[in-house]
Amino acid sequence: MAQAGVYLEHDQFNCSICLDVLKDPVTIPCGHSYCKGCIAGYWDQDEFISLYGCPQCRQTFSPRPVLGKNTMLADVVDKLNKTGLQSVPSDDSLAEPGDVECDVCTGRKNKAVRSCLVCLASYCESHVQPHYESPAFKRHKLVAPFGTIQEKLCSRHDKLLEVFCRTDQQCICSLCLTDEHKGHDAVLASGEITEKKSEIGEMQRKSQQAIQEREKELEQLKQSMTSVTLSSQAALVESERIFTELSATIARRHSEVKEIIRAQERAVMAHAEGYLRQQEQELNHLRKRDAELVRLLQTDDHVSFLQRCQCLGAQPERVEVATIRTDPNFGSAIAAVTEFQALLEDVCQGGFFNISEKVNAVIIIEDPKPKADNMEQAPETAAQTPCGLSAPAPTTFGVPVPTFGGFAFSTFGSRPSSSRLRVQQRRRRR
């Protein structure tokens, strides 16, 4: 039956009590079959009620039926046990669209598991068994299932393409070597596959090496990006702190300058007020003396005039003569503050350029270095600088200018500002 391609369910020959293949099968009056020992043991449990039922359909019998062997069913089970029970193919073994189908199956075809290069056919798990068991198929070569067998055959000689022509770089059959490929460099396809696999293996090794290098570069790139993010946050926090301190320093100096101006104003005014009171006292004294002189000149009594003249002392002389400025002001202080502003602007401008240079130097992807040909076209000034030495520090009026972080600060900056021009104009007027 199995050889005829008839598929039978396992459950058709299984006992529903022990769930195994029927042993000494018997059939009860309702038509269901069981192992003789299984149904007898089942009915023994109901012996006390004298009512015996079928485990499947629940039909009851009384008295207890006599169990007779079903010889026909026993013969079928015995033959199937000897030949092997061919089960119904499961859905997993059936060929789906895109699968290679078994060339032996009829009706609904199973999925092929192997293809034979000698038979030029594909087989499912069931139909490939003879190739494993029969000595007649011992020399047949089984390979993974492939789709169209005709693709493996020579279109001219209808023979298997088992030779590779290196001259024409194509697969041919053995008969092709006798005509159009005669004298060509040809080898067995299996040998060429071995060599090609070796070449492809080397290519794959290099590919894996390139992948590992790219993965390493990618990991380094991610680490660099993380480092830039963390470093930029730290730089922002630190620059915020420093500029806050600078702002506080400028504000403190501003307060100090205002206090100096006000203190000088108070001191100058106090000194001037003291001198003013002294001069007013001297002026009052002079006015009194002048009034006495006027009255003396108006006296007609000679005796009284002479007596009063003797009482007059000599004209008092001023011991110190102070110089009074006609236009005292804080203009020079304003000029000094303006000059201080210009210097701060220069320092800030130079510092900003230096900071920008250092910030712009932070990169992740570095451009490729120029070739040696481009290096020969470097400026002469760079060529004149000895290797390992830096260029001389910039100077202002022959005096070296202090540097900070590789950036030279000029006393007057790189470009004249409006405040700096005002300072220079005041200096020329002096």
TrEMBL record:
InterPro entries: E3_ubiq-ligase_TRIM/RNF (IPR051051), TRIM8/14/16/25/29/45/65_CC (IPR058030), Znf_B-box (IPR000315), Znf_RING (IPR001841), Znf_RING/FYVE/PHD (IPR013083), Znf_RING_CS (IPR017907)
Name this protein carries in UniProt: FinTRIM family, member 67
Top-rank lineage group of the source organism: Eukaryota
Presence of keyword Zinc-finger: yes
Keyword terms, alphabetized: Coiled coil, Metal-binding, Zinc, Zinc-finger
Coiled-coil boundaries: 193-231, 269-296
Residue intervals of the RING-type domain: 15-58
Domain B box-type: 149-189
Gene Ontology terms for molecular function: zinc ion binding
Keyword Disulfide bond in record: no
Gene3D superfamilies according to UniProt: 4.10.830.40, Classic Zinc Finger, Zinc/RING finger domain, C3HC4 (zinc finger)
A GO CC annotation given for this chain: cytoplasm
Pfam families: TRIM_CC, zf-B_box, zf-C3HC4_4
